[in-house]
Amino acid sequence: MKYLSFIVALLLSLLVFSALNAPAQEQAVSSRYTVQQPDDKLPSTAQLDSIVLGSGCFWGAEMRYERLAGVVDAVSGYADGQGVKPTYRAITQRSNKNNPNNHAEVVQVTFNPQQISLEALLQHYFESHDPTQLNRQGNDIGTQYRSIILTNSPEQQARAQAVLQQYQPLLTAAGYGKIVTQLKPLPEFFPAEEYHQDYIAKNPNGYCPDHSTGVRFNRDSAIQTAAIDNNPLLTGKQIVVIDSESYCPYCEKFKAEVANDYQGDIPLNFRFARQLAGLAIKTDTSATPTIILLQDGQEVFAFRGYLAPDEFYLLLGKFKLGDSEAFNVAFDKGTDQQFCKEYQIFKNTPDGVFVDKLSGAALFDTRDRFDSGTGWLSFTKAVAGAVTERPDNRYGMRRTEIRAAISGIHLGHVFPDGPKGQPRYCINATVLDFMPRG
């Protein structure tokens, strides 16, 4: 039941994240930003330039531009509309979904041409979305999501057209259609409401929309044509994480907080959305990260977005352990049967270490094991930094619970009655695996 509640919570979190796309209360346009006119002069103290780019939802686009070396600022906003108020509430009204005069969601990018050229910026722009989709990006459908470049000079217009023409044959060779990106002079730029600025940074547990085609300009042709062998993913249990082809803070957070510490025996594989050939995946993979659990190449479960360590290991626990005693011990603070079969196997192993059954992290060493006569594995200490302690006052007792530091699963308890005044770590064998010392 606890696992089912978690799955329901995960699904509800997706609905909540989507609901944020239509806030109930209109917020005022930020006074931090000024409306940019095409003929506005650049600050005399810096040789800067700016261009306005639309590639679907501006949340992820703004963040990706800000990560580029040479980009000074990126501001989400609205442009190229007529007769429609430049506010989020107005442009998302159902009546404006197919309105050709609706404003587009855009990002005003201010950059230093000495550090990043207009051509390099536009190459990133085209590579970061699908410019062949008309008035949409993935499941985001409507004229507000149109692909558009709004320039501040005839020179910018000509240079943008040249980059577009360079990209078209690359897309065509990859099986894509005609680029539908509009190229226009910028009439006026309206900064979006404050809550849209740096949106992804303000919402740290979501996902980044990634609608890129995977087609790269020739500078990255080696990456573009590199073959990916998915045959190992067709056998047994596998974890696949859909990564971003550009910068995604949620992907980086998942790597830092989960993937980098994972050493489990179910392989964890990173793929781009275009690298899933041969796998039976039903879930839309346009969100990064997306965590997919596979059995013999078939999707069993998938979650779109960042998963914290405790959420990831709960999901992995159900996938690996199923409805078992080990799962109940790990996640419901259960206890092994005294002298259980795992205890009988592990009480006299050769020299080695006992590892977390889910994360693969080393927890206890055979050199610290002793026979307490209790029917549970006993150790005088844990591997340094491998476990955490917390009070456990259930059943009218005052005990100290031991949990795995990385996965957070319940391991057992520690008592002060070990040999020669040392502690006794009383540990459940069902949540451990054994690794002989190499």
TrEMBL record:
<dbReference type="Pfam" id="PF13098">
    <property type="entry name" value="Thioredoxin_2"/>
</dbReference>
<comment type="function">
    <text>Has an important function as a repair enzyme for proteins that have been inactivated by oxidation. Catalyzes the reversible oxidation-reduction of methionine sulfoxide in proteins to methionine.</text>
</comment>
<comment type="similarity">
    <text>Belongs to the MsrA Met sulfoxide reductase family.</text>
</comment>
<keyword id="KW-0560">Oxidoreductase</keyword>
<keyword id="KW-0732">Signal</keyword>
<dbReference type="GO" id="GO:0033743">
    <property type="term" value="F:peptide-methionine (R)-S-oxide reductase activity"/>
</dbReference>
<dbReference type="GO" id="GO:0008113">
    <property type="term" value="F:peptide-methionine (S)-S-oxide reductase activity"/>
</dbReference>
<feature type="active site">
    <location>
        <position position="57"/>
    </location>
</feature>
<dbReference type="InterPro" id="IPR011057">
    <property type="entry name" value="Mss4-like_sf"/>
</dbReference>
<dbReference type="InterPro" id="IPR036509">
    <property type="entry name" value="Met_Sox_Rdtase_MsrA_sf"/>
</dbReference>
<protein>
    <recommendedName>
        <fullName>Peptide methionine sulfoxide reductase MsrA</fullName>
        <ecNumber>1.8.4.11</ecNumber>
    </recommendedName>
</protein>
<keyword id="KW-0511">Multifunctional enzyme</keyword>
<dbReference type="InterPro" id="IPR002579">
    <property type="entry name" value="Met_Sox_Rdtase_MsrB_dom"/>
</dbReference>
<dbReference type="InterPro" id="IPR036249">
    <property type="entry name" value="Thioredoxin-like_sf"/>
</dbReference>
<feature type="domain" description="MsrB">
    <location>
        <begin position="315"/>
        <end position="437"/>
    </location>
</feature>
<feature type="signal peptide">
    <location>
        <begin position="1"/>
        <end position="24"/>
    </location>
</feature>
<dbReference type="Pfam" id="PF01625">
    <property type="entry name" value="PMSR"/>
</dbReference>
<dbReference type="InterPro" id="IPR002569">
    <property type="entry name" value="Met_Sox_Rdtase_MsrA_dom"/>
</dbReference>
<dbReference type="GO" id="GO:0033744">
    <property type="term" value="F:L-methionine:thioredoxin-disulfide S-oxidoreductase activity"/>
</dbReference>
<dbReference type="InterPro" id="IPR012336">
    <property type="entry name" value="Thioredoxin-like_fold"/>
</dbReference>
<dbReference type="Pfam" id="PF01641">
    <property type="entry name" value="SelR"/>
</dbReference>
